[in-house]
């Protein structure tokens, strides 16, 4: 898509993004059922990343194929997405099927296919929850300034998908790329869709991949990277997400080890009122 | 398998477990190739758990089907195992195929099948590593007493698989089940195969599932549980594992949230000399 057509697209979007039905995110994850376990979609230029679309929206559309599948028995508990090769900005098919349905859990295998090749695969666990003893163990980061007191990171000069999010970095210093190595990569950010969209399991999935690559933060420089595999555990249920509406969520991420081409990242996503909505982990390829 | 035959089995095992080739773990994860992408194995009674075999050995045999596959191009980076239903203590087939092979990474999908049904599914990422800038970020727990100064947890009266591990709980209090709730579930344990076996990617996979369910520790009582999905990121490469030989590894695990039937667990597995060998995450079903 040319720069002009992106601008046109953005201009059009602004006018029709006030209700969720027309949010660009919903366009990007919309699927057409073309067979019992088969859906057709298209990588959306509004979420373009370095090569192909932003990984978070790919994860969301893979989950979408489960959530809108007639066999789906509940809400997502776990999602693992493996990014096998770059998704082309073109049509794709998704094949998703329930490999096993139990009383309260259901296991899915999902493939995203372009030109006859699997470019991303995923597994998902769906569950019917029931009331049990429950408690938080992790605690949200302390003394975090309100999102309104921090400027939105400018999407100017960045990949297109950046414009689809409102990202407010709490430690501005963590976004400096002066090539002076830091001693850790833990950062926190406020984030939500842009324009705001009420959060659901699908947009939460996208938000789980918004974190900057930990290696950029640790080394304060850009190196070629690509997420290889991402896992999300959904702790929120439908009601707690509904309650959030389109408020900012708070993400905190860190790496555990960078080693010969791969590093991991673990992150938590909190609601503004301190509920742990999701924990998410990924392993990322890096060069140099 | 009857109690007598387990005892006979254990008696026989003792006599032939001094070299790795005959370690019971290797018996438990041995597969026979029966097709291009198909292997035949059998759930091993020596790793019996509450229902079916210990999940760690199931994860290991799923990974085994990749590592011994002629198409495999390197060492594991990521493994996600979804436990769809209990594995019966019987024969099984594993179907594993490389869905995509890139220059330095390779993506696999794997199914464990019994009686025509998928009882566990997995995805794995294999990689060829190369030398890059590398560093640790996570730090091992401090002031941990040597494993030799702690008693091995007795496998008496526990599930059979317990006897296959030498587990030394650092905070003995964490193993007390007096039903007085604790305010956190973080614990550390020394662990290795029993009898000792030089660690490799397969036994490291098993060790990643040795941690007690966090809910037992938090609530200090047993409730029905079952791991639904487990992910492992391998930070160690072949050389660093070889260097470890059969030494103890140190595991630290914690939960982030327990909520209406599911809790998560995040853990690190360290070598005795402070190298982060793996990070591992799981989501676990619980009742009550």
What can be said about the biggest beta sheet of chain A?
A: 13 strands, antiparallel
| Biggest interface found | A-B, 63 and 63 residues
Task: Supply Rg of chain A.
Answer: 18 Å
Number of helices of chain A: 6
N/C terminus separation of chain A: 31 Å
- Total number of β-strand segments of chain A? 14
The secondary-structure element order of chain A is HHEEHEEEEEEEHHEHEEEE
| Secondary structure: helix percent of chain A | 10-25%
Uncertain runs of chain A are: 1-10, 12-20
User: Structural class, from helix and strand content of chain A?
Assistant: alpha+beta
Shape of chain A: globular
What's the mean pLDDT score of chain A? 93
Observed structural traits:
alpha+beta, globular, homodimer, 36% strand, 14 strands, 288 residues
Task: Write a concise synopsis of the structure shown.
With 288 residues, the first copy, chain A, is α+β, with helices and mostly antiparallel strands. The first copy, chain A, has helices at 3-16, 24-28, 55-67, 201-207, 214-219, 238-244; strands at residues 32-35, 38-42, 75-83, 91-101, 105-114, 117-127, 135-136, 165-169, 187-193, 225-234, 249-254, 257-259, 262-271, 276-286.
Secondary structure: elements and pairs:
The structure is a homodimer of 288-residue chains.
Chain A: H1 3-16, H2 24-28, E1 32-35, E2 38-42, H3 55-67, E3 75-83, E4 91-101, E5 105-114, E6 117-127, E7 135-136, E8 165-169, E9 187-193, H4 201-207, H5 214-219, E10 225-234, H6 238-244, E11 249-254, E12 257-259, E13 262-271, E14 276-286
Antiparallel strand pairs in A: 1-2, 2-4, 3-6, 3-10, 4-5, 5-6, 8-9, 9-11, 10-14, 11-13, 12-13, 13-14
């Amino acid at each position: 898509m040319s720069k002009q057509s992106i601008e046109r697209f953005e201009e059009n979007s602004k006018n029709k993004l006030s209700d969720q039905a027309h949010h660009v995110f919903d366009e990007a994850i919309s699927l057409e059922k073309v067979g019992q376990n088969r859906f057709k979609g298209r990588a959306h230029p509004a979420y373009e990343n370095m090569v192909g679309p932003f990984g978070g929206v790919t994860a969301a559309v893979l989950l979408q194929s489960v959530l809108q599948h007639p066999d789906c028995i509940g809400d997502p508990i776990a999602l693992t997405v493996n990014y096998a090769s770059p998704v082309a900005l073109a049509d794709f098919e998704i094949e998703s099927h329930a490999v096993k349905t139990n009383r309260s859990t259901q296991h899915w295998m999902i493939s995203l296919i372009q030109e006859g090749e699997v470019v991303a695969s995923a597994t998902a666990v769906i569950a019917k929850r029931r009331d049990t003893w429950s408690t938080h163990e992790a605690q949200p980061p302390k003394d975090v300034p309100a999102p309104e007191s921090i400027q939105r990171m400018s999407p100017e000069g960045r990949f297109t998908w950046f414009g689809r999010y409102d990202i407010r970095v709490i430690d501005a210093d963590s976004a400096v790329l002066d090539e002076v190595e830091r001693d850790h990569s833990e950062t926190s950010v406020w984030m939500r869709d842009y324009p705001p969209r009420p959060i659901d399991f699908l947009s939460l999935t996208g938000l789980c991949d918004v974190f900057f690559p930990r290696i950029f933060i640790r080394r304060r420089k850009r190196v070629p990277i690509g997420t290889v595999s991402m896992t999300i555990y959904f702790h929120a249920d439908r009601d707690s997400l509904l309650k959030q509406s389109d408020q900012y969520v708070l993400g905190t991420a860190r790496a555990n080890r960078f080693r010969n081409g791969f590093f991991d990242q673990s992150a938590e996503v909190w609601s503004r009122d301190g509920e742990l909505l999701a924990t998410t982990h990924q392993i990322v390829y890096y060069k140099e």
